Amino acid sequence: MSCSMPSSSIFTEPIMNNSGDPTESLENLLVQLENNGYESIPSFRIYLAAKPFIEKFEVNADVNQLDKFCRYLTWSLDQEKPEHSYIACGFQKKHLIAWIEHIKCISVNCLSSMSKLKPELQTDSKSLSIFLNTVVSLTCMRTWRITKHEQYKQLETGINNLTNNVYSYMITEGQFYESINELLQAGFTRPGKIFFTRTNLHALATLSNKSLLDSRFVTDLLLTKYVIYVISIPAYVHYVHSLCPDGLPDTLFSVLIDFLAVEGNLENCLIGKEICFIFSLLANLTDFGQYFPDLAEQIHPKFLNVLLKLLRFCEEELNISKKSHWHPILGWVSAPISLPYLNTVAVVRGQIEALWKPVYIQSSTEPSTCRSLRPSAYGRIHLASCRRHSAESVDVWS
Q1: pLDDT tens figures, 90-104
Q2: Positive or negative: CA dihedral 229, 263, 268, 309
Q3: Quick check: 23 and 31 in contact, CB under 8 A?
């Protein structure tokens, strides 16, 4: 990214410590900030001390210090005075490139740290809020107060490109969707309860969606990762829609169905996946569709064909002769059932029951699509729990 810098420097040379080393210990500086206030030390000194820490960051050893640093960083982004703004540290040309790489590394370190947290613990939940706030702030220029400063309005375009650059780096180099998956799985591990605040879940959903809703970022690879790591998480759509419905915009639904309707895309997402994964994806897409019935009707029969394919994949799995694991909805299946699936059975059952709602029944019996809806296409799926019979096998077509 290239942008024009202000002609005059806003910083003096860093203040030396007693040893004459300009790179002071970040840990010591953070203690001073806690004791004397965030305004007690210029942001440039914090930046010089933070650089080696961020470059050598280790998740298992440094999360607490990263938490403290990110608390300062998010405060700093809300400051208009250059001497207190971490963003202004990049306004010197000789530091610009190193500073941009530094910001990218901060976002990736926050991402990797989030994936190791346990949201059910209060301390980890607070750290999650800090790391999410940091990532969102670094990828959204609107949160940078200094950009409202008259002196730096000329940099608005360059700074906007920078935030896009940081986000692009994070989703391509930082195992973004894999980390989001670990965190979401951890938050949905107990039956009937999730361990995310509304704000945190909204931030996670928004960060996950952003790359799919912007033509500058979206690729088939990212869409595939979203399907595999996000929209297939058991009960994901239900929880997000319940707590923060704007985290699932109608445009996202259209993008997903258009992608999955292309020959081969859904099949690529399901390579090597077990029945629970396929069933959760089916449940989430069914749930998603009922929230936007008008849109679902507009993209019919694409949407219906995607659901049919998923039902056929379920049927193939249920026709496997060797089964040794009991699924509370599907009955006997060949693969073991993991804890997240077991703990969300009640929600997933409710999502699947939407298939019997009028919006789906009517669309599946329209003359234009009746030919493709043979009973064998739907297959036989155990819906024992849905029908209150512990081992009753019923035909989806009935």
Answers
A1: 888 888 899 999 999
A2: positive
A3: no
